[in-house]
Amino acid sequence: MGGYGVSLVGHCHPKVVKAIKEQCERLIACHGSLYNDKRAELLEKLAKISPKGLSKVFLCNSGAEAVECAIKLAVKYTGKHEIISMVRGYHGKTLGALSATWNPKYREPFKHILIQSFKFAPFGRLDKVREAITKNTAAIIVEPIQGEGGVHVAPQGFLEGLRRICDENNILLIFDEVQTGFGRTGRMWASEHWGVTPDIMCVAKAMGGGMPIGATIAREDIMGSFRVGEHTSTFGGNPLACAAACATIDVILEERLVERARDLGNKFKSRLQDLVREFSILREARGLGLMLGLEARIDIYNVLMGALERGVILLYSGRNVIRFLPPLTISLEQIERVVEVLRDVFSEEEKRFRGSFKTPLANGALNEPS
Question: What is the pLDDT of residues 224-241, one digit of tens each?
Answer without folding.
Answer: 999 999 999 999 999 999
